Every structure is written in C-alpha cells, then in structure tokens.
Amino acid sequence: MAFSNLAAPTDLKEGIQGYQPAPETVIAKEQFRDDKFGVFIHWGVYSMLARGEWVMNVEKIPYSEYSKLPGGFYPSKFDARQWVKQIKASGAKYITITSRHHDGFSMFDTKASDYDIIDATPFKRDVLKEIAAACHEEGLTLNFYYSLLDWGRDDYPRDPAIAHTEKEREMYAKYLDFMCAQITELLTNYGPIGCIWFDGDWAKIKKPEPGQEMVIDFDWGYERIYRLIHSLQPSCLVANNHHRIPIPGEDIQVFERDIPGENNAGYGRTSHVSTELALETCKTLNKSWGYDIKDDNWKSVPELIRILLSTAGRNANLLLNVGPQPDGCIPEESVKRLAEMGKWLSANGETIFGTRATMLKPQKWGVLTHKDNKIFLHVMELPEDGVITLPFTLKAKKVKDFANGAALKFKKTKKDFTVTLPEWADATVDYIIEITL
Ligand code: GLC
User: Fold this and answer.
1) What residues have CB less than 8 Å from 317, skipping those under 6 apart?
2) What is the pTM of this model?
3) What number does the ligand 1 atom closest to the CA of 98 have?
4) Which of 241, 267, 269, 282 to mutate to test the pocket of ligand 1 (most atoms within 8 A of CB)?
5) Per residue in 84-123, pLDDT tens?
6) What is the CATH topology of the domain spanning 23-351?
7) Ligand 1 centroid, distance to 215 Cα (angstroms)
8) For ligand 1, atom 12: residue with the closest CA
9) Where do you find CATH 3.20.20.80 in the chain?
C-alpha cells in the first residue's frame, strides 16, 4: 500500500490516552515540586568546538567531518564527584544532563550504537555512570535529557520531502526502536532516574499560518515511549520540551527560557500553563547551553536569584544550565555563580524548598510562597505606600522580618490582610516577610 502524499493526520491521538499517573509517579512529582531548583548540564563532543551545541547545524559542518570529533575527545580533568559537589553547593537538588543531543552522540555506554563515548572516544569512560554514582553519594536526583531529533543517523527522517510517506514511516519505525533501546539502557543501567527530558519535537511542527491552530503532522510514537518509561521506572517523570500543550503521559511541563505563562522567548506555541503537571523553566547562566568560548554574557547573581523567585512564585522549578568545557571542567564563572546561589539559599532556602505558590498569583511587589503554616512574601519591589496588601484575610499568629526576626505591623480586615514594611526593608534582591498562621 502506498502512503505517499497522505494529508497531515488531523486525528492524531498522541501519548497515553486517559493517562493516570501511578502512585509512585504522583509521589515523585510532589518530590520534584519540593526540589524547586536543578542544574542542567549540556555536554558533548560539540564542547570541543566551543561554539555551542548547535555548531554542526549552524555552521553546516558535514556529519562525515563532525563525527571525527569523538576521536579527539579526552576531557582529562573530568571529575564527576567534583561536578556534583560544585552543583550541590548551589543548593540544587537535581541534575539534568544531556545523554544524547541533536548531534546524535551518546555520552554513555550504549549497545544500540557505536557513536558513543565508549566506542568512539579515547576517553572510554561512561561519564553518566560516574555522575550517577556521585549523585547517589551526594543525595542528588539524576535526570536525563534525550534528543528525539538526530542530525546524523540514516534512519531519522530529516528530509521534509518524504513527510507522510511509507519511507518516512519505515525509517522512523527503526529509529523509534533505537530510541526505545537507549531509553531502556538509561533506565536500567544508572539506578533510579528522576526524569527523562525530551527535546526536538518542535523539529516536526509546522509553523501555523497567522491565526491558525498549530498542526503536528508527525507521529513520534509517544504512547510507546511514555509507557516504556513509566513501566521501567514508575517514579521516573516524563518531561518534553515541545513547547505545546502537554500530551497525556507527561508529568512535567517545560518552559524553555520562559517563565510559565509569559511566553516571551519566542518558542512557546501556547501560553497554556498546566495545573496538573509539575512546571519547570530552564534558563542559561550566560546565553548558551553548550560551552561557548566567546559568550561572556553572564547573568548577575541577584538576577539569578530573582529568576528563581519568579519561578518558585509561579509554582515552578528552575533548571539552570552549565556548559562544561572540553577539558571536563565546569567554567569558573558558572561555578562562582552556583556557589553564590548556594549562599543565598542556605540562608533563605526555607522560603523556597518544599513550598508551593498556589495561594496568590504574582503581584507587582513580588511573589508569595507557602508551606505548612508559613507564608513567605518575597518583596522584590517596594510599594510606594510601604504597605503590602494580600487580597484575602488571614488568621496570623505572627508576622516577622525573615532575616532578622523583627516583628512587623499587620492588620486584617474581613477581606484583606496588610503588612507595613519597616523602614529598613531592602528589596534590591528580595525582602522576605514570614507569616505564621
Ligand atoms: C533547545 C535547543 C537545545 C537545548 C534546549 C534546552 O531546544 O535545541 O540545544 O538543549 O533547547 O532547553
């Protein structure tokens, strides 16, 4: 039967229809929400070219040449324990690392391909295994980024000319088997994994005409992929950076370079924010994901803390990226920033970790987080009248300055609750008020 020139499938039912997360998944999702802050690692053979992880594609480097890079990959200073310690010092509770990026190179020992760190590099060390062991020692959760898209494999249907043809289906069936084999390895050889974080779905999305709905005209086989993950490790969450409305079977909604709901980065095909799924924003420390030698657009520490506050204040996690160098070190500028974030979090983490932000949406003055009988007001802009007004009433036992413990003046009416800021309130980064109920 010929499938050529089939119209885009409009009735494509993606994912696991009627998905009901298993009890283990539900627990893991709450744990993920509690964790609030993770570190992303983009590392691959592209780091050797030092111009980001898209270098092969952007500079149109032929795959036949690019694929010689692994032959020289020897990150002599790589030390998984040191990485995990540096990351833990930031206060982060989890690490999400690229197991295989769009260039198709596997940074782990895979039997499904020879284009991997064991078979194709002189380094011959499974860095993911070493990182998994170090995470285990330090009590950090490990997550794997995994690219759906591949710039090199013969069976990945890249050519738009074969869209919706039998050829495309045949190729993809093989490629899907390959991905499932790798996902199985990732979920059987590295201990408990917190999440598989997919990327590249957008490669098959047609840009909608203005005013038109977006059309997905490719069947990624998510039902099979998601079922596989949930069956191998029910506590492993599924995230997919597809920039569209969540697909059943996913547990985390991802916002790339975007605060949930803001849709400013230009990737989001929707401003939809799920109330069911956990939320996560990923951001860079400078402008790049993979190591870029010329990128010195480092964000300041106050800016980073405010990003964390703005995600926590939207009930979302922050995944902050580092792009290690080809020698295996995390860039010094990144390490410094991670350490500074850690200092701030060791003093103020109680107002972030384990909290939720469902009582009040972000306000002009800042955001509210809450946990058990505590409410934290993170004031990032001092109101002119020096008064913070919550649009609901509260039975508060105590209201204090979180940093120095000084009691603050408050007043409740039937419909609202106000706190008067003291004259020393400084909102340059975050002035925190603690309310005890
Ligand atoms: C994008 C890029 C990719 C990067 C990812 C991180 O999808 O294609 O290079 O890994 O964003 O969010």
Assistant:
1) 32, 33, 35, 36, 37, 38, 278, 279, 280, 281, 311
2) 0.96
3) 10
4) 241
5) 999 999 999 999 999 999 999 999 999 999 999 999 999 9
6) TIM Barrel (3.20.20)
7) 21
8) 256
9) 23-351
